[in-house]
Amino acid sequence: QAKEMGKNTFRFYSESIGESMAERFKMEVALRNDLSASTPSSSPFFVVYQPQYNAKKQVVGAEALVRWSSAELGFISPAKFIPVAEEVGLIDELGMFVVNRVLHDISNMASLFEKSTLDHVSINLSIKQLTNPTLTSRLLNAFQHEGVSPDKVRFEFTESVFLDNALNPKALFSEMSEIGFTFALDDFGTGFSSLSYLKDLPISELKIDKTFVDGIPNEESDTTICSATISMAQKLGLQLVAEGVETEGQFDWLVAHGCNLLQGYLMSQPIEYKEFVSLLEKSHVD
Ligand code: C2E
Ligand code: MG
Ligand code: MG
Ligand code: MG
């Protein structure tokens, strides 16, 4: 009986691993082809922007999020293909595609930074991009090429950067912040790092993870974590963005507790560049 079960278990696992290996391999091949074979305008990769709002529901920022519409595999979530791109060494190429695309868009909407409440656009950087020693110089080239000033962009990273032995975050972030780049700590509270980096590193912003926002206003543990994070950010002089705001109840609770930067489906899903521009044009401050 036990032997039988063992056999079944083995067969079950080997099949499921085999399937997912094949899937990952297909994804790798498609990623490689789609990254190399196309010009920026015909690329199956593109960037969408999720607006970030202040307490008066004015757009003050946006998070750039990559999308992939593969001819072979269809639409795939970045939560699936980013880890594969990281594993197979394609994240630098994909990451620079995103940076170049966003800088191009920023330079096209330069006047909107003056005419609207928009302050900056955030770009996600994965740990694998941050550990590449050529990152800073490639970023500098890209910003110079598009004529975009570093203060128009904020880079988001996760706590994983503090757990990677190959990276000295203090050295890297100091170097980058001297150039004028600013940083946000994404998915705050979900990692396993110590809080000491908050006083050692040049970080401008914390993003409270959606998993905590989800429990507002009914889950006491979540509201406790959110209000503690808000007051800690205030005392440390950090901006604080709440992620994944989906209900009026969450919005009102967060604003009442001092969180005045918010992002989520309640206000807007991620939208394409043109739609983002018309949103900003409608909200001109004269
Ligand atoms: P993230 O950086 O934490 O981005 C927030 C994610 O939450 C986005 O998912 C966004 O669409 C989603 N979201 C925002 N508001 C709501 C809401 O109210 N409800 C719900 N259910 N979801 C909401 P997305 O675009 O699928 O991206 C997933 C993750 O993939 C990102 O998490 C980020 O870690 C990664 N990613 C996306 N674009 C890039 C990129 O250009 N470079 C890198 N390195 N990673 C990226
Ligand atoms: Mg402005
Ligand atoms: Mg992010
Ligand atoms: Mg996040």
From TrEMBL:
Protein name per the record = EAL domain-containing protein
Domain EAL positions: 28-284
Q: Which start and end residues of the full protein are shown?
A: 686 to 971 of 971
